[in-house]
């Protein structure tokens, strides 16, 4: 009765991290419980059906789960919860998808009433073919993803044993000269490969690209990589050339400007989801080669049409990469059924403790609106309110002060509104990268920033993802996409690459006090706060006053 | 032995006599088993016997019999009246005793001898004594074809079963006798007439045994000619007397050998017909022109007409085909309750404690959430379906479970309707006390309310006979069998080895055996299922096994001391985290929990509680009168971790803006550009009653209505003008809502409560005394001439005044009791048995055995007195 774990009736698990058995307990519950919050003292895990099925898919059984809960629990575990765990886990694997030598893809059951129940569902009927015997029904091979998705929604997740096609072979090796995969990256690759398909969750800056490269080296097959934008595509290419045996010629870019299809092809979500006359002309890219592996970068951003198409690609290995499996649209279960279960997850603070990402100091700078601004804010239209307070002039002063304070450090100023960014760029005398900046120009500026030729860069949300700027140590966020939690995490990720001198990164979020900006900021910070990043709050007046003292002194 | 059928002085002739022969302990046992007989206390044993024979009472008594006792009673109902124990045993086990011919009770000695032989011979081994019976088995099997074969195949009971029946029979008979359903000794067992009527077959209702009427009953209305035909067809000598014809037919049907011979001639289809009817129902419909096999049977009286279109299989024939058995299956032993799992008792207790804590928390959450006035009461009473759904969602449980918690809180007297005009449910004042008690005691209160409650939440959502949906807290939820079933289920669990969780099927089977009557068994099974689920929810059981607290509850001792050490110690600290949450790693001490509940929102509950601080929650705390510094101090004092900066900021931020705007209530105001005038008004003593307050230099607010304010100011000599008002704001803080004092619902038990020993003893004494008074055998009055004669029983004694005085005085001296006739002031005559203590002033004071108290009687109202026979008190 003195374990580190408290099992709550709402199926959350509270883990006291300072307890001597905390590590053992964490290892015991990690397979089935999702880490929900990891602040300093008590971590919260949640037991969800998805998590339990994940555990089943990874070969754990209900007995192990119950034992883990009972063993480490401080208080008696509610009986109902244990029963529920056992019942939920028992639902997985009653149905299996497998290859039949004669009938092709079939759905088999070990529990006939379940099959009867699901076959009566209107959503399943169009996906299945003839009934082969009492326990088996044929499934149209093209509906493999669809049926998995639907079965999950019906609460009877199918175990997919139908295997994968190998795809067109292509030699790929890691060129580990003077570097090697970090232990957690190797674990992630192994976890993925062992499971066949799935998602790897790693913090920004923890080297997700290398996990992708590692997976490709395992697959040794033609690979399709889906990324968020062109800059990111170029970085993937650069990184792959550097880290693997692949040459530039073997890697194609499929984007708005170039349409190359090579053994390894990097495509952007944007081009795939371009719609002409009601059809997606570029989705045939998926069929253009016999891909052996498909990598989804930033899987939390996967657009709906790609989901739909991914459903048809169930015979190919799929790897999803993300920093935060938080989807603001709540489609985590689609990621589970279509890409695969979560195969690897590491709390940010753990990676930080291992020294692979820089420690970060997060500061929320609160800015007071002036009296006239407050009046203007109060009378602004509802839809204009956020823009108004997010772009208030006071923020500019504070930003300038912050930039001055970190003079000599590589600083990124990140914002949402172009006007605001242009103005900031002008005042800070720094180049601005925004949507209309050409890719060539972007690459050039990023290069200059990496080389240290420019120390301040003002960027719009185009730089939210996958821009590798290892030298950035200070990020100042002046405005954002409302309350997006994952955007905040991605932006913090910009400065988390470990620094050469090991010093800590700084992340400032400039927020207008007593406005909707502050509410959004609170929401945005929630994910990071739950990952253990404690925000400090600072008054702009203090900052400006300090500034005054310094200039005086 | 023959005195069994003759009138001997020892054998009771009626139930009343049988009761009279019982000792007090037996009477107490009877009254305990059938407490309805005590309402009101019967005057004497004759009355008691009459009441014990009434239909309602007998139905109740039969209802309480276990399956074997009931089967025994059923067998008695189809047996001759009276019946001896051997015949009864034969009916139950089916082995024919050697001299089975003729009515068994007419030859008591023979029957006894047969019984003895049977015991030695047994059912399986044909010994010497049981020779004829043993030899008959195979012959019958051959001769009867399919029907006989089936009857035999239907389980000629194994010798083990037969032995069990024999062992169990005396017990079952004792139960039946105790309950006064059966009386008479083993040679003359008699079923109370009402019970016989209830259990014996009648044309409208076949008996539970599936046996039809006897030949004599079935032929009662038949024409003598028809009977002659049957007798002739059956191959019996003709007789003109219908009575002897019926007797001859009965004789034939009860003679196995002749019966077998008769049936051997039957066409094969006839056997099929018989096979269909043999185990009941014994009635078959026929066309006016029946088929040949049916005709064959009908002609020989093997089927007798019951009405124009139905034929019935007479009881004797059916018994023959059944091998003499009244029941197809006999269950002399209670089926054992099987343990499905056995857990370690500590584990069971731990689980139950966890569940107990959850139960207390759930009830607190439920009732607490109705703190400001709960859902409205439906006009028909109860909670609307929507409110139940809402509560279920709020508690995060299924609706039936929510209904259970609501009913539990109601049964424990923690919530009730407030009785206002728009009636709502609200916590009772008792809830405030309950909430302050230690958790173990709170649980004990819930559990002790649950065990005897007759309201059952299980039926919520179902429809009653009139198609109305039964609602939680509504009417008609009482199921009087609930407490008994609940207790019984727990008792059966308690009988398992410690930590044993019962296999539900075996438990239900056992319950069905104990109370087999059809009308109630379905409800009882459901009640048992609910009991298991509820006990688990409440923590009376843990993982299906009865916990220590459950045993205490069952034994009627306070479970709280057992539970208390198993519950987690309350903690007095929380862990504050930078994500604006606080975690209490265990149950919090009450004051702390209350403050935190105001200051932060509860996010997750269970062993620990997770709180989240939001601007709204902090504002709530400030509204409740806390200052920002109080909150900082509170957090610093109770957090074992440093207060994170964002939290301090949050509090300061909210506090900074809190109270910036002030809102208050005023009924009227005074406005004046000249602030010195307002100052004057305020200073004036006469304005004190107006409740004036200065809001600004030129504005006064008043608590009185504008007309009163106007009047007041005019009275002070001013000339104010009324302003057209713009509606004033009235804000009242909602007070916690409580019902008036409420008592929890009183369980509606099945029948009257079982009286305690003192009451029973007193009742028996009173009945006894009344009985003595009514039936006392009196000595001849000492000096009464032969002319007076002894008064007939029931008549008032008559003696002269002098005799009366002398007898009474003598009795007072010797301390003996006398029997008096007494006419009271209203002229009503009664008989009483009194033990005179003193005689003076024309009054006799004595202990009245009839009334069971000391009373005084006027001598001149005593019509006569008689001494009592010695053995009567």
Automatic annotation (TrEMBL), chain A:
Catalytically driven reaction(s): ATP + H2O = ADP + phosphate + H(+); Couples ATP hydrolysis with the unwinding of duplex DNA by translocating in the 3'-5' direction
SMART domains named among the record's database cross-references: DEXDc (SM00487), HELICc (SM00490)
EC number: 5.6.2.4
Entry keyword annotation includes Electron transport: no
Domain Helicase C-terminal stretches: 397-543
Transmembrane residue ranges: none
Family: Belongs to the helicase family. RAD25/XPB subfamily.
NCBIfam families: repair_heli_XPB
Protein name from the UniProt record: DNA 3'-5' helicase
């Amino acid at each position: 009765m003195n374990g580190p774990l408290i099992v709550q009736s709402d199926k959350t698990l509270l883990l006291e991290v300072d307890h001597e058995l905390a590590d053992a307990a964490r290892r015991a519950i990690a397979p089935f419980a999702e880490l929900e919050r990891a602040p300093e003292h008590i971590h919260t895990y949640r037991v969800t059906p998805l998590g339990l099925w994940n555990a089943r898919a990874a070969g754990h059984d209900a007995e192990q789960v119950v034992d883990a809960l009972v063993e480490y629990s401080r208080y008696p575990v509610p009986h109902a919860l244990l029963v529920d765990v056992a019942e939920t886990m028992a639902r997985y694997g009653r149905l299996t998808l497998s290859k039949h030598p004669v009938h092709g893809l079939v759905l088999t059951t070990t529990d006939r009433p379940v099959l009867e129940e699901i076959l009566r569902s209107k959503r399943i009927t169009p996906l299945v073919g003839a009934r082969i015997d009492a326990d088996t029904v044929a499934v149209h091979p093209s509906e493999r993803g669809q049926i998995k998705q639907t079965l999950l929604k019906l609460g009877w997740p199918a175990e997919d044993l139908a295997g994968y096609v190998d795809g067109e072979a292509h030699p790929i090796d890691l060129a580990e000269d003077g570097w090697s995969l970090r232990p957690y990256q190797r674990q992630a690759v192994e976890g993925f490969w062992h499971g066949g398909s799935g998602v790897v969750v790693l913090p920004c800056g923890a080297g997700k690209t290398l996990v992708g490269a590692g997976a490709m080296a395992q697959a040794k097959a033609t690979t399709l990589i889906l990324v968020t934008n062109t800059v990111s595509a170029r970085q993937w290419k650069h990184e792959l050339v550097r880290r693997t045996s692949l040459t530039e010629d073997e890697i194609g870019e499929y984007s708005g400007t170039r349409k190359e299809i090579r053994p390894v092809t990097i495509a952007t979500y944007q081009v795939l989801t371009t719609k002409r006359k009601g059809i997606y002309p570029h989705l045939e890219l998926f069929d253009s080669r016999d891909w052996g592996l498909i990598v989804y970068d930033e899987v939390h951003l996967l657009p709906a049409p790609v989901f739909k198409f991914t459903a048809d690609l169930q015979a190919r290995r799929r790897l999803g990469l993300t920093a935060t499996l938080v989807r603001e649209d709540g489609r985590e279960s689609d990621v589970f059924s279509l890409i695969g279960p979560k195969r690897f997850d590491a709390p940010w603070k753990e990676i930080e403790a291992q020294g692979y990402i820089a420690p970060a100091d997060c500061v929320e700078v609160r800015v007071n609106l002036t009296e006239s601004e407050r009046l203007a804010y109060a009378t602004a239209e509802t839809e204009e309110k956020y823009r108004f307070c997010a772009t208030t002039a006071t923020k500019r002063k504070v930003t300038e002060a912050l930039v001055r304070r970190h003079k000599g450090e590589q600083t990124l100023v990140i914002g949402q509104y172009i006007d605001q960014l242009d103005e900031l760029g002008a005042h800070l005398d720094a180049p601005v990268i925004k949507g209309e900046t050409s890719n060539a120009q972007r690459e050039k500026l990023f290069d200059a920033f990496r080389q240290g030729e420019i120390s301040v860069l003002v960027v719009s949300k185009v730089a939210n993802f996958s821009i590798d700027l290892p030298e950035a140590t200070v990020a100042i966020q002046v405005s954002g996409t409302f309350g997006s939690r994952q955007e905040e995490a991605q932006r913090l990720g910009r400065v988390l690459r470990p620094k050469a001198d090991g010093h800590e990164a700084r992340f400032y979020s400039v927020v207008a006090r007593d406005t909707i900006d502050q509410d959004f900021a609170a929401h945005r910070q929630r994910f990071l706060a739950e990952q253990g990043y404690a925000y400090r709050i600072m008054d702009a007046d203090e900052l400006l006053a300090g500034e005054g003292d310094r200039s005086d002194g | 032995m023959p005195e069994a059928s003759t009138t001997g002085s020892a054998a009771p002739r009626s139930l009343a006599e049988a009761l009279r022969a019982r000792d007090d302990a037996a009477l107490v046992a009877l009254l305990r088993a059938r407490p309805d007989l005590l309402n009101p206390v019967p005057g004497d044993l004759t009355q008691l016997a009459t009441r014990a024979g009434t239909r309602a009472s007998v139905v109740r008594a039969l209802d309480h019999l276990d399956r074997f006792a009931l089967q025994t009673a059923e067998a008695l109902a189809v047996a001759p009246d009276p019946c001896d124990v051997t015949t009864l045993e034969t009916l139950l086990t089916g082995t024919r005793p050697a001299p089975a011919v003729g009515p068994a009770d007419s030859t008591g000695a023979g029957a006894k001898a047969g019984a003895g032989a049977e015991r030695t011979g047994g059912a399986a081994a044909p010994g010497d004594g049981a020779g004829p019976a043993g030899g008959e088995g195979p012959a019958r099997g051959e001769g009867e074809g399919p029907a006989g074969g089936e009857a035999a195949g239907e389980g000629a009971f194994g010798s083990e079963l037969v032995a069990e029946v024999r062992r169990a029979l005396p017990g079952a008979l004792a139960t039946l006798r105790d309950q006064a359903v059966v009386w008479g000794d083993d040679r003359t067992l008699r079923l109370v007439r009402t019970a016989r009527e209830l259990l014996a077959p009648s044309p409208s209702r076949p008996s539970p045994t599936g046996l039809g009427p006897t030949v004599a009953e079935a032929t009662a209305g038949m024409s003598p000619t028809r009977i002659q035909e049957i007798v002739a067809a059956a191959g019996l000598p003709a007789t003109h007397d219908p009575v002897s014809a019926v007797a001859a037919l009965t004789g034939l049907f009860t003679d196995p050998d002749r019966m077998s011979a008769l049936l051997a001639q039957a066409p094969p289809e006839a056997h099929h017909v018989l096979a269909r009817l043999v185990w009941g129902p014994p009635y078959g419909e026929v066309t006016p022109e029946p088929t040949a096999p049916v005709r064959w049977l009908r002609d020989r009286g093997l089927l007798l007409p019951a009405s124009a279109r139905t034929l019935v299989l007479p009881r004797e024939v059916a018994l023959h085909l059944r091998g003499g058995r009244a029941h197809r299956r006999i269950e002399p032993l209670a089926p054992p309750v099987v343990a499905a799992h056995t857990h370690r008792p500590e584990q069971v207790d731990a689980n139950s404690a966890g569940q107990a804590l959850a139960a207390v928390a759930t009830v607190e959450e439920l009732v607490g959430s109705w703190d400001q006035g709960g859902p409205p009461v439906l006009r028909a009473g109860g909670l609307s379906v929507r409110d139940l759904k809402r509560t279920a969602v709020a508690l995060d449980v299924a609706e039936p479970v929510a209904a259970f918690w609501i009913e539990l809180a109601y049964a424990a007297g923690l919530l009730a309707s407030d009785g206002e005009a728009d009636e709502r449910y609200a916590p009772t004042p008792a809830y405030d006390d309950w909430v302050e008690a230690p958790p173990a005691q709170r649980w004990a209160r819930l559990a002790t309310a649950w065990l005897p409650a007759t309201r059952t939440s299980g039926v919520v959502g179902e429809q009653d006979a009139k198609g109305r949906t039964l609602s939680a807290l509504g009417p008609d939820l009482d199921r009087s069998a609930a407490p008994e079933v609940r207790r019984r289920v727990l008792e059966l669990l308690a009988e398992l080895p410690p930590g044993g969780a019962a296999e539900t099927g075996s438990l239900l089977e056992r319950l069905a055996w104990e109370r087999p009557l059809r009308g109630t068994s379905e409800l009882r099974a459901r009640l048992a299922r609910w009991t298991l689920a509820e006990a688990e929810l409440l923590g009376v059981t843990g993982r299906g096994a009865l916990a220590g607290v459950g045993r205490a509850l069952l034994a009627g001792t306070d479970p709280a001391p057992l539970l208390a050490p198993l519950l987690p110690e309350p903690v007095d600290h929380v862990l504050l985290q930078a994500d604006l949450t606080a975690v209490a790693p265990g149950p919090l001490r009450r004051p702390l929990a209350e403050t935190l509940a105001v200051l932060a929102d509860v996010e997750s509950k269970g062993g620990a509680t997770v709180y989240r601080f939001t601007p709204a929650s902090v504002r709530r705390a400030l509204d409740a009168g806390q200052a920002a510094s109080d909150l900082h101090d509170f957090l610093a004092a109770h957090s074992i971790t440093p207060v994170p900066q964002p939290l301090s900021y949050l509090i300061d931020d909210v506090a900074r803006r809190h109270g910036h705007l002030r809102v208050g209530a005023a009924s009227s105001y005074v406005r004046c550009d000249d602030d010195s005038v307002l100052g004057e008004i305020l200073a004036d003593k006469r304005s004190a009653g107006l409740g004036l307050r200065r809001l600004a230099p030129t504005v006064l607010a008043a608590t009185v209505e504008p007309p009163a304010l106007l009047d007041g100011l005019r009275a002070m000599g001013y000339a104010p003008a009324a302003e057209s008002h713009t509606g004033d704001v009235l804000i009242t803080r909602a007070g916690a809502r409580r019902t008036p004092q409420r008592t929890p619902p009183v369980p509606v038990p099945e029948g009257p409560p079982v009286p305690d020993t003192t009451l029973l003893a007193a009742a028996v004494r009173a009945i006894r005394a009344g009985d003595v008074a009514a039936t006392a055998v009196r000595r001849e009055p000492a000096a009464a001439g032969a002319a007076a004669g002894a008064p007939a029983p029931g008549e008032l004694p008559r003696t002269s005044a002098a005799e009366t005085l002398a007898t009474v005085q003598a009795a007072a001296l010797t301390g003996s009791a006398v029997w008096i006739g007494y006419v009271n002031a209203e002229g009503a005559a009664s008989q009483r048995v009194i033990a005179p203590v003193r005689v003076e002033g024309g009054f006799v004071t004595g202990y009245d055995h009839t009334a069971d108290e000391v009373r005084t009687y006027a001598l001149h109202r005593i019509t006569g007195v008689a001494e009592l026979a010695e053995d009567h008190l």
